[in-house]
Write a structure and sequence with these properties.
The protein has 215 residues and is an alpha/beta fold. The protein is built from eleven helices and six strands.
Length: 215
Amino acid sequence: MTAPVSVVLVDDHAMFRSGVRGELAAVPDRITIVGEGQDVDSAVAAIEATRPAVVLLDVHLPGGGGAEVMRRAKSPDTRYLALSVSDAAEDVIGTIRGGARGYVTKTITGQELVDAITRVSEGDAVFSPRLAGFVLDAFAGSIAVADVDEDLDRLSEREREVMRLIARGYAYKEVAKELFISVKTVETHMSNVLRKLQLSSRHELTRWANDRRLL
């Protein structure tokens, strides 16, 4: 019999980790969770302690994000599968460039997740269907990856979150509610975003983000 795939689960939301753990516990012959992490430091520690076959990795984490985990963790045979609520092009492309073998969104079913983990452990690349298009476009050159990264590198993680929501048409109050911050803080972040990207209006920001497939 084939041994179950060893997995480290990394996400900063305890309830989400609990839900995934429950889904994967239903197939102990295929998957076994050997460790967990809720931020970059704890993720790196868990990976280096257990040397799992696969890490289920959230993209946005306290301490630097999923890319920082892949950069720091010393476990050369481990493969990474991003599991994120984000379906933004820059997250997908940046995570794959950081070393992940796949990227799926949190709308995935339990059975689909088990299959994705198994395939990644065997060396396959796995993407949710819509996200595969981002990667193909990036390699084909229709998304200017270097330009996207250079522009986004100017923004903090919170500024990126505000930028994306505003560009999608959210009102300041809606952004504040979504991110659990004040309207004044949203205004400050928005001002910083426009200044750093050298844009003058919300309309220009929406066009900028749409051109880069960030929405």
